[in-house]
Protein backbone atom coordinates (compact mmCIF):
# COMPACT_ATOMS: atom_id res chain seq x y z
CA UNK A 1 0.00 0.00 0.00
CA UNK A 2 1.25 3.53 -0.84
CA UNK A 3 2.21 5.93 1.90
CA UNK A 4 -0.43 8.43 3.08
CA UNK A 5 1.56 11.24 1.44
CA UNK A 6 1.51 9.52 -1.98
CA UNK A 7 -2.19 8.71 -1.59
CA UNK A 8 -2.92 12.38 -0.84
CA UNK A 9 -0.94 13.57 -3.89
CA UNK A 10 -2.69 11.02 -6.09
CA UNK A 11 -6.08 12.17 -4.80
CA UNK A 12 -5.19 15.82 -5.47
CA UNK A 13 -4.15 15.00 -9.05
CA UNK A 14 -7.36 13.04 -9.61
CA UNK A 15 -9.42 15.91 -8.20
CA UNK A 16 -7.64 18.45 -10.43
CA UNK A 17 -8.10 16.23 -13.50
CA UNK A 18 -11.82 15.75 -12.75
CA UNK A 19 -12.27 19.51 -12.36
CA UNK A 20 -10.45 20.10 -15.65
CA UNK A 21 -12.66 17.56 -17.43
CA UNK A 22 -15.82 19.18 -16.03
CA UNK A 23 -14.80 22.71 -16.97
CA UNK A 24 -13.96 21.96 -20.61
CA UNK A 25 -16.61 23.01 -23.11
CA UNK A 26 -18.32 20.17 -24.90
CA UNK A 27 -17.21 19.76 -28.48
CA UNK A 28 -19.19 21.42 -31.23
CA UNK A 29 -21.59 18.92 -32.76
CA UNK A 30 -21.26 18.92 -36.50
CA UNK A 31 -23.89 17.80 -38.99
CA UNK A 32 -21.31 15.82 -40.95
CA UNK A 33 -17.59 15.14 -40.38
CA UNK A 34 -16.61 17.35 -43.34
CA UNK A 35 -17.79 20.38 -41.34
CA UNK A 36 -15.24 19.68 -38.60
CA UNK A 37 -12.69 21.42 -40.82
CA UNK A 38 -12.72 25.24 -40.91
CA UNK A 39 -11.66 24.94 -44.56
CA UNK A 40 -15.09 23.49 -45.31
CA UNK A 41 -17.29 24.93 -42.55
CA UNK A 42 -17.74 28.66 -43.30
CA UNK A 43 -14.69 28.80 -45.61
CA UNK A 44 -15.24 32.40 -46.71
CA UNK A 45 -15.69 34.02 -43.29
CA UNK A 46 -12.26 35.63 -43.45
CA UNK A 47 -12.43 36.59 -47.15
CA UNK A 48 -13.33 40.20 -47.90
CA UNK A 49 -15.99 40.22 -50.60
CA UNK A 50 -17.74 43.49 -51.31
CA UNK A 51 -21.11 42.30 -52.55
CA UNK A 52 -22.24 45.88 -53.23
CA UNK A 53 -19.80 46.10 -56.16
CA UNK A 54 -20.92 42.81 -57.71
CA UNK A 55 -22.63 43.48 -61.05
CA UNK A 56 -24.41 40.37 -62.27
CA UNK A 57 -25.82 42.13 -65.35
CA UNK A 58 -22.26 42.82 -66.51
CA UNK A 59 -21.44 39.12 -66.11
CA UNK A 60 -24.54 38.13 -68.09
CA UNK A 61 -23.59 40.52 -70.90
CA UNK A 62 -19.79 40.06 -70.94
CA UNK A 63 -19.00 36.86 -69.03
CA UNK A 64 -16.75 36.76 -65.98
CA UNK A 65 -13.04 36.94 -65.39
CA UNK A 66 -11.90 33.75 -63.63
CA UNK A 67 -9.35 35.81 -61.68
CA UNK A 68 -12.27 37.50 -59.90
CA UNK A 69 -13.24 34.12 -58.46
CA UNK A 70 -9.77 32.84 -57.60
CA UNK A 71 -10.59 32.66 -53.87
CA UNK A 72 -13.51 30.35 -54.68
CA UNK A 73 -11.52 28.16 -57.07
CA UNK A 74 -8.53 27.81 -54.73
CA UNK A 75 -10.79 26.91 -51.80
CA UNK A 76 -12.69 24.39 -53.93
CA UNK A 77 -9.40 22.79 -54.99
CA UNK A 78 -8.24 22.50 -51.37
CA UNK A 79 -11.61 21.04 -50.32
CA UNK A 80 -11.61 18.53 -53.17
CA UNK A 81 -8.46 17.05 -51.63
CA UNK A 82 -10.82 15.97 -48.82
CA UNK A 83 -13.69 14.82 -51.04
CA UNK A 84 -16.00 15.87 -53.83
CA UNK A 85 -18.72 16.33 -51.20
CA UNK A 86 -16.49 18.83 -49.38
CA UNK A 87 -15.80 20.66 -52.66
CA UNK A 88 -19.54 20.93 -53.33
CA UNK A 89 -20.15 22.25 -49.80
CA UNK A 90 -17.50 24.94 -50.30
CA UNK A 91 -18.96 25.90 -53.68
CA UNK A 92 -22.46 26.27 -52.25
CA UNK A 93 -21.24 28.53 -49.43
CA UNK A 94 -19.67 31.14 -51.72
CA UNK A 95 -21.34 34.49 -50.82
CA UNK A 96 -21.55 35.74 -54.42
CA UNK A 97 -23.30 32.53 -55.42
CA UNK A 98 -25.81 32.92 -52.59
CA UNK A 99 -26.52 36.48 -53.75
CA UNK A 100 -27.06 35.40 -57.36
CA UNK A 101 -29.36 32.54 -56.35
CA UNK A 102 -31.40 34.83 -54.08
CA UNK A 103 -31.74 37.79 -56.43
CA UNK A 104 -31.55 36.58 -60.01
CA UNK A 105 -33.67 34.58 -62.42
CA UNK A 106 -33.29 30.81 -61.90
CA UNK A 107 -32.07 30.17 -65.44
CA UNK A 108 -29.41 32.89 -65.27
CA UNK A 109 -28.34 31.74 -61.79
CA UNK A 110 -27.99 28.17 -63.07
CA UNK A 111 -25.97 29.35 -66.07
CA UNK A 112 -23.68 31.30 -63.73
CA UNK A 113 -23.19 28.26 -61.49
CA UNK A 114 -22.46 26.05 -64.49
CA UNK A 115 -19.98 28.62 -65.77
CA UNK A 116 -18.14 28.63 -62.44
CA UNK A 117 -17.98 24.83 -62.29
CA UNK A 118 -16.86 24.53 -65.92
CA UNK A 119 -14.14 27.14 -65.34
CA UNK A 120 -13.00 25.32 -62.19
CA UNK A 121 -12.68 22.03 -64.08
CA UNK A 122 -10.82 23.74 -66.93
CA UNK A 123 -8.36 25.38 -64.54
CA UNK A 124 -7.56 22.46 -62.25
CA UNK A 125 -8.40 19.36 -64.28
CA UNK A 126 -7.57 20.51 -67.82
CA UNK A 127 -11.04 19.59 -69.02
CA UNK A 128 -12.88 21.16 -71.91
CA UNK A 129 -16.48 22.33 -71.58
CA UNK A 130 -17.98 19.02 -72.75
CA UNK A 131 -15.97 16.98 -70.23
CA UNK A 132 -16.88 19.42 -67.46
CA UNK A 133 -20.58 19.23 -68.33
CA UNK A 134 -20.34 15.44 -68.32
CA UNK A 135 -18.75 15.60 -64.84
CA UNK A 136 -21.47 17.97 -63.58
CA UNK A 137 -24.15 15.60 -64.92
CA UNK A 138 -22.54 12.48 -63.50
CA UNK A 139 -24.47 10.57 -60.82
CA UNK A 140 -21.54 10.89 -58.39
CA UNK A 141 -21.37 14.69 -58.70
CA UNK A 142 -25.14 15.07 -58.56
CA UNK A 143 -25.32 12.92 -55.42
CA UNK A 144 -22.52 14.89 -53.71
CA UNK A 145 -23.98 18.24 -54.77
CA UNK A 146 -27.44 17.36 -53.46
CA UNK A 147 -26.01 15.91 -50.25
CA UNK A 148 -23.90 19.04 -49.67
CA UNK A 149 -26.97 21.21 -50.19
CA UNK A 150 -28.99 19.08 -47.75
CA UNK A 151 -26.23 19.13 -45.11
CA UNK A 152 -25.84 22.90 -45.39
CA UNK A 153 -29.57 23.39 -44.90
CA UNK A 154 -29.47 21.20 -41.78
CA UNK A 155 -26.39 23.02 -40.45
CA UNK A 156 -27.88 26.45 -41.07
CA UNK A 157 -31.21 25.41 -39.56
CA UNK A 158 -29.44 24.23 -36.39
CA UNK A 159 -27.44 27.46 -36.22
CA UNK A 160 -30.65 29.55 -36.25
CA UNK A 161 -32.09 27.71 -33.25
Structure in words:
With 161 residues, this protein is mainly α. The protein has one domain (33-160). The protein has eight helices and no strands. It has helices spanning 4-23, 56-62, 70-80, 84-92, 95-103, 106-125, 129-137, 139-160. 15% of the residues are buried. The model has no long low-confidence stretch (mean pLDDT 86).
Q: What is the gyration radius calculated from CA atoms?
A: 23 Å
Give a short account of the largest sheet.
none
Strand content: under 5%
Number of strands: 0
- By DSSP (H or I, 4+ residues per run), the number of helices equals 8
Helix content: 55-70%
Number of domains: 1
Order of helices and strands: HHHHHHHH
Q: Spans with pLDDT under 50 lasting ≥5 residues? A: none
> Termini distance?
54 Å
- The pLDDT mean sits at 86
How is the topology of this model organized?
Blueprint lengths: L3 H20 L32 H7 L7 H11 L3 H9 L2 H9 L2 H20 L3 H9 L1 H22 L1
Helix pairs in contact: 3-4, 4-8, 6-7
Summarize the structure.
By secondary structure, the protein is an all-alpha fold.
Which properties best describe this structure?
single chain, 161 residues, mainly alpha, 8 helices, 0% strand, elongated
